[in-house]
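#dry-run=false #mode=assembly
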Amino acid sequence: MKTINDRFYALGTTIEGGFRADQVLAEKLCEKIRLRIAEFENHFSRFLPTSELSYLNANPNREITVSPQMIEIMLAARKIWSLTDGLVDPTIGQSLIAAGYDVSFELLNNSDGQPAPARVVRRTLRDVKIDEKLNTVKIPEGTTLDFGGIGKGYILDQLINYIEPLTQDYWLSLGGDLVVSGRDGTNQHWPIGVQNPQALDQDIAELKLPSDRWAVATSGITHRRGVKAGVNWHHLINPRTGQPAMNDVLSVTVVAKSALLADAFAKTILFQGSKDGIEWANRQKDLEALVITDTQEFVFSDNMKKYLKFL
Amino acid sequence: MKRYKTYLVNSRFISARVLELSVARSNSRSFPDFLPGQYATLSFPLHQKLRGERSFSIASSPTDSSVWRFGIKIFGRYTSALQDLRPGEPVMVGGPFGKFSFDQFKDQSAVFLAGGIGITPFVSMIRWATNKKLSNDLTLFYSVRSLADAPYREDFYALEMLSPHLKVIYVTSDLAGNDPSARIISGRINADLIARFLLKKLEDKSYFICGPLPFMKAMEKIIGGFGVPKQFIKTEKFGIGSKAFIETGSPMPKIAFAAWGLAAAVVFGVVVRMEQARRSNAATQNLVNSPSIEATNNNAPGSAVPSMNNVNQAAPITNTSQPSVSNNNSQNQSSGTITQPSQPFQSPRAAPFVPRTRMS
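#status=ok
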């Protein structure tokens, strides 16, 4: 069976994938994935003024009737917020704006002379009222929702439902957050490159995972970053401080059973630092992690090392 | 006519010029059921720009218990204003109406001929037949300007995968899109094309036609040539001047009768007749000027057609037996249906197709 590949640009990043399937059906699948992602962006992008999320953000203190999709992602966000003790929180939007991340990253001018990011007093997801029965959401004044912390993982998990009726041998990446299942065209486990946080176009290691479906996500501070008024900033804002995370972690790569969890847990570990983060990872079920620190040390969770080959 | 108060659940573009409105089914026990292929009227009491009620075909399946979906082509002032609607806004629904409906017992082998936005009643019929797992053979000939312009394309892909009894043939004016192996044909629907995909006993099938007037006339002529009895040809006119539009396009006469009495009504009647004549003329003019088959809404006022958006074709899909380096960087975008970044994608490097986790 041949591998059908596709690559395109959406969600401010590169979407790519490979599917071992009948060519006609795989091409239809690729088309469907493109449309689903475009639809997702129209609902949940903070940068599209016409999106449903923008409408919600523009109407605080009102119970807004929203789509079932919005309710679903809000409930997923609440679950993640609870699992991560509030370290992944979509109400982070105001802090992102204060940090200069007020347009899609590729449009940012990183040296515009604006003052360094200021701490924003803000609320948490606990203050957002979600009514599943009435399909309404009410956000408090001064709150901006942003699903950047979980969005790619969330949509990846949705897209699996379209892929798996067609094939069990595939991979799909949304800007580096990916799901992998089965084997490649040479009947080997898909080899997964792990990005070097200090040389972004190179890989530092290769992951080989068992054949069943896995999700892999990487978060790091050396990609989306800039300097404002002489102060370094990056886009990973710790909800507890309202500031970009500052500790010994350069990047975290996580392997989990769902893309939503992998995406969220990578950030959770990053915010905690290498020691506390790996200890936290070892307490979780079906979660493995690799942390690369600013002193170029590799810190693993208990079972991660057996999947890794360093290059 | 009884109307039901409900609200808008979702509004989204499903192609460059087609907006889909999803309206919640009211919790009211008396909220009606509909037959696949019927239409309903919508009105939006809170919007100044959306005065009166208009009729639109229902594109969802009657088995969808949560919403009624309407596919609406953005065409004139009224439909353009529909883009301003936001989830949660109140909507009044009237109906359902129409006899353009698919019968699972009578129509064992049905041929659907759709022109442009005339696809909407067929979406309902096909969704319904697939949900009910019916064994009726359904063949859809879908005439569109280009594939990028074709709403519901992804739905049909999914439905074709779910149903072995469904076949969808796209007929486009876009010569570049010709791909008979994928049932994408450049040109117009004609007798040869229909015969090629239906293979046998053309006269034994039920034919359903929906689209703009020139499309309908052309299709009726073709089907008539197959010797199909008239009772097996069902049609639904889409476009300005259609019966549905004249009946429901404006509530003004009723208001006039109630408020000002008979004399005022006579004056109003004259005004309304003049307005209808003006719209009818405008519609005729639009249809004459239309370069190819293209449906309008049931009811869109006769304003100028907005220029077509430039939409990018789907990126090439490469076919490799194993990961290999490729310089063929894909261009963004899906079928140009929904708001997306317009700049072409340039990969930072000629990357091979291999899974790679990286910071996002």
